[in-house]
Amino acid sequence: MLRKLMTAAAAIAIFTGPALAEWPEKSLELIVAYGAGGGTDVTARTLQPLLEKELGQSVVIVNRPGAAGEVGHAALANATPDGYTIGILNLPPMLTIPITKDAAFKADQIIPVAGLVRDPSAISVPGNSPFNTLDELIAYAKENPGAVTIGTTGVGTDDHLAMRYLAKATGAEFTHVPFASAGAARTALMGGHVSAAALNLGEAMPNAQEGKVKILAHFGSEPSALAPDVPTAKSLGVDVEMLSERGIGVPAGTDPAIVEKLAAAIAAVANDPAFIERNKELFTEVAYKPAAEFQQHVEKLRGDYQAMWDESPWQ
After folding, report:
1. With bands split at pLDDT 50, 70 and 90, how would you rate the model's confidence at 147?
2. What is the pLDDT of residue 139?
3. In the structure, what pLDDT confidence band is assigned to residue 39 with cuts at 50, 70 and 90?
4. What is the distance between the alpha carbons of residues 124 and 197, in angstroms, rounded to a whole number?
5. Which class for 127: exposed (0-12), middle (13-18), buried (19 or more C-beta within 10 A)?
6. What is residue 37's predicted lDDT score, i.e. its pLDDT?
7. What whole-number distance in Å separates Cα of residue 117 and Cα of residue 95?
8. How many angstroms separate the Cα of 264 from the Cα of each of 46, 71, 298?
């Protein structure tokens, strides 16, 4: 019997040991749940070459936009858990989508591997807008309920929640205009098709520098060293905080040894000066969280968002 067990163990080692040791043996797909040109896509493309260097394999970015991030997160959640499909996790959408509707995925179908960057939500208007301050925008919205249209990347995104909490904190009434991606919302903003847009600071800053948009405030907890001239909403007397956090995840069921190896590669990238400097250029802050810390953070946020939804559903 002992000989049979030893033989079986050896057979398992032959078929599983090398596979884990050699991962990755082929290219990986990196799923992005939003369209090209948005903050998530930019994060993926900044990560891509450095992750390829760490893993020794090519990383192919696959944009899967749709339903405010549901399509892409579902594609990740339902992928084969073999280590060859990874994805950018977007918080809050990864958590809010399954809370707010019968979604095509559940949050626990995805393993958070590492937190990478954070980017505060911000409220911007076209460069030629008559509104030059957040107070002016809010005052007009109060006097003209529903007249101020605000573009976002969809229901349950940080952009949408920022707009919703801005309305709640000020008593202003806005009209929500959801778009499929940040790029589409930004195009509509610059074209004057919406009064304002709730975009991440990193998404709006390049156009602000060109004078195409004006950022009235951002919703970070403190001033941003990357955009020191943009006030926080809190500093203007509006008690709203909201930001986008992006990390890396894999489908539940992925072998722990693969997750560990991927996590080590992500850690190396997050601490690479080239990655940090490039994110500064993109007005995005590197905020690395290792697996255990990131997973705890995700669970806390999930509980917070569930409680908020139970108290007052958002649409």
Report:
1. very high
2. 97
3. confident
4. 5
5. middle
6. 81
7. 17
8. 17, 28, 19
Cα–Cα distance for residue pair 274/101, rounded to 1 Å: 40
**With b meaning 16 or more CB within 10 Å and e meaning fewer, what string describes 98-118?**
bbbeebbbebebbbbbbbbbb
144: exposed, middle or buried (C-beta count within 10 Å: 0-12, 13-18, 19+)? exposed
- Cα radius of gyration rounded to whole Å, the chain: 21
Q: What is the pLDDT of residue 157?
A: 86
Q: How far apart are CA 268 and CA 132, in angstroms?
A: 42
Residues 6+ apart with CB under 8 A from 231: 134, 217, 218, 223
pTM of the predicted model as reported, rounded to 2 decimal places: 0.82
**Adjacent-strand bridge partners of 28:** 59
Q: What is the mean pLDDT of residues 74-90?
A: 98
Q: pLDDT band at 228, cuts 50/70/90?
A: very high
pLDDT value of residue 66: 87
